[in-house]
Design brief:
alpha/beta, Aspartate Aminotransferase, domain 1, 2 domains, about 20% strand, binds 4'-deoxy-4'-aminopyridoxal-5'-phosphate, identical protein binding
Length: about 425
C-alpha cells in the first residue's frame, strides 16, 4: 500500500535532490480547490500548483475540451501541420492584451521559454542586446532567465556563467524604504555605469513580483517605465507568468496601471493545468524574427490550446475576474484582522486574489522571520491546508487559491492560517 514516507524514500533514491519539494506529500486525487493524498488525507489547496489553477483542479469545462481534442488529434507540431485552436487562441489573446495597436501571439510550453522568446524578439526588433530586470524578480530556470532572475540562492548557485548584458534595477518596496524614485534612479545609474540606454533592448518586470514576495509595482512606476522606454527606444516587457490569466482581478495585471507594454509573457493558469505559455505583443515587434526563428516541437500543443480556450470561456461565463477581486478582499480582510493580534505580520499586500503576508521578528519589518514562515506552512499542512512561501528572505506566505473555490472553503483555509499562527505564537 502506498504511503507518503515510502514514496519519499523512493523519490530520494531515484530523483536528484535539486528538484525540491515543499511538502512531503504524494497526491492521489484533486478536485477544484481540494486534494487528497495517497493516505486518504484531505487538504485545502492554497497553492494551486504555483498559480496554475485559477480555474481549479480538473475544471469540468477544461476536462471536456481536452477530451474532445483527444478524439481528434493530439500532436502534429504547429510548424509542420497547423490547427485552428492555436489560431483562435492567438486571436482571443490579441484582443485581450492592452494597447490600441495591432498584436500577435506566439505560443510555447513553459514560462521560462516565453521569457526567453520575449527577449529574443526584443533583440531582433531593436538590434540591441541589453536587458534590465529587477532585484527580487523571477523569470525561470534556463540560463538566460536565470541571468534575469534577481535572487541567487537557490536558483543560480553553481550554474554560472550566465548570458551577458543583463542588469538589475531596484524593485520598489514601501515597507523597506525603496521608493519609485529610487527605482528610476537605479535605472539611470545602470545607464551611467553599465550600459548606454541606446544599447538596451528591453526592460522587463513582473507587475507583481511572484517568487520575490508578492511585491506590487506601483502604477506610477509602470507609467515612469513606459515614458523612459519610449524616450530611449527600449521595449517594455511585462512578465505576467504568475500575475496573468485573471489572478489579480484583470486578465493582465498591467491593465490596472493604464499602460500598454510592448510585449507580455504568460503561462501557468492560462490553460488550467496543461503546459502552454505565450508571448503577446505589438505585431511589428513580434514579426521581427525571420521565418523559422521561433517555435518548438510541443509549442502550442493542441491539447493545451483546447484547454486554454475553455479557460477563457470559464472566465467569461462565471465572471471570474470579479470573483478574483472579491476573493482578494476576503483574504486581505481576514489576514489584516489576524495582523491586529500578531505583530509578526509586518504587512498584508497584493493585487486582486494574489495576496501575501510578510512575517518579521520582534515586530520589526526589517528582521525577516523565515523560521516562523516555514513553521507556519508546516503547521497549516498538519491542519489540512497547503500553503506556499516566497520572498527574497523566505519570509512571505502567499495565497494562490483557485478562483473557483467557494467562500466556505476559503474561510476554512483562512481559519487554519489563523489557528496555526495562534498556536506558534500564543
Ligand atoms: N516568470 C514568472 C513571473 C514566474 O513566476 C515563473 C514561474 N514561477 C516563471 C517565469 C517561469 O515559469 P516556468 O516555471 O513555467 O518556466
Amino acid at each position: 500500500h502506498l504511503n507518503n514516507a515510502s514514496l519519499m524514500a523512493r523519490r530520494e533514491a531515484a530523483i536528484p535532490r535539486g528538484v525540491g519539494q515543499s511538502h512531503h506529500i504524494f497526491i492521489s486525487r484533486a478536485e477544484n480547490a481540494e486534494v487528497w493524498d495517497v493516505e486518504g488525507c484531505r487538504y485545502i489547496d492554497f497553492a494551486g500548483g504555483i498559480a496554475v489553477l485559477n480555474t481549479g483542479h480538473r475544471n469540468a469545462a477544461v476536462m471536456e475540451a481536452v477530451k474532445s481534442q483527444l478524439d481528434c488529434y493530439t500532436h502534429t507540431c504547429f510548424q509542420v501541420l497547423a490547427y485552428e485552436p492555436y489560431v483562435e487562441l492567438a486571436e482571443r489573446i490579441n484582443a485581450k492584451a492592452p494597447g490600441n495597436f495591432a498584436k500577435k501571439t506566439l505560443f510555447l510550453t513553459t514560462g521560462a521559454e516565453a521569457v526567453e522568446n520575449a527577449i529574443k524578439i526584443a533583440r531582433a526588433h531593436t538590434g540591441r542586446s541589453g536587458v534590465i530586470a529587477f532585484s527580487g524578480g523571477y523569470h525561470g530556470r534556463t540560463l538566460l532567465t536565470l541571468a534575469m532572475t534577481g535572487k541567487v540562492a537557490p536558483y543560480k548557485l553553481g550554474f554560472g556563467p550566465f548570458p551577458a548584458e543583463v542588469f538589475h534595477a531596484r524593485f520598489p518596496s514601501a515597507l523597506h524604504g525603496v521608493s519609485v524614485d529610487d527605482t528610476i534612479a537605479s535605472i539611470e545609474q545602470i545607464f551611467k555605469n553599465d550600459i548606454d540606454a541606446s544599447r538596451v533592448a528591453a526592460i522587463i518586470l513582473e507587475p507583481v513580483q511572484g517568487e520575490g514576495g508578492f511585491n506590487v509595482a506601483p502604477p506610477e512606476l509602470m507609467r515612469h517605465l513606459r515614458t523612459l522606454c519610449d524616450q530611449h527606444g527600449i521595449l517594455l516587457i511585462c512578465d505576467e507568468v504568475q500575475t496573468g490569466a485573471g489572478r489579480t482581478g484583470t486578465w493582465f495585471a498591467c491593465e490596472q496601471s493604464g499602460i500598454a507594454p510592448d510585449l507580455i509573457t504568460m503561462a501557468k493558469s492560462m490553460a488550467g493545468g496543461f503546459p502552454i505559455s505565450a508571448v503577446v505583443g505589438r505585431a511589428e515587434v513580434m514579426d521581427a524574427p525571420g521565418a523559422g526563428g521561433l517555435g518548438g516541437t510541443y509549442a502550442g500543443s493542441p491539447l493545451a490550446c483546447a484547454a486554454a480556450l475553455a479557460v477563457l470561456d470559464e472566465f467569461e461565463k462565471h465572471d471570474l475576474l470579479q470573483r478574483s477581486r472579491d476573493i482578494g478582499q476576503r483574504i486581505t480582510t481576514s489576514l489584516r484582522n489576524l495582523a491586529k493580534r500578531h505583530s509578526s505580520i509586518a504587512e498584508v499586500r497584493g493585487l486582486g486574489a494574489m495576496v501575501a503576508m510578510e512575517l518579521c521578528k520582534n515586530g520589526d519589518p526589517h528582521q525577516p522571520d523565515a523560521e516562523l514562515t516555514k513553521a507556519l506552512a508546516a503547521e497549516a499542512t498538519k491542519r489540512g491546508l497547503i500553503l506556499l512561501t516566497c520572498g527574497t528572505y523566505g519570509n512571505v506566505v502567499r495565497i494562490l487559491v483557485p478562483l473557483t473555490a467557494d467562500d466556505a472553503l476559503i474561510d476554512e483555509g483562512l481559519a487554519i492560517i489563523a489557528a496555526s499562527l495562534d498556536t506558534l505564537q500564543p
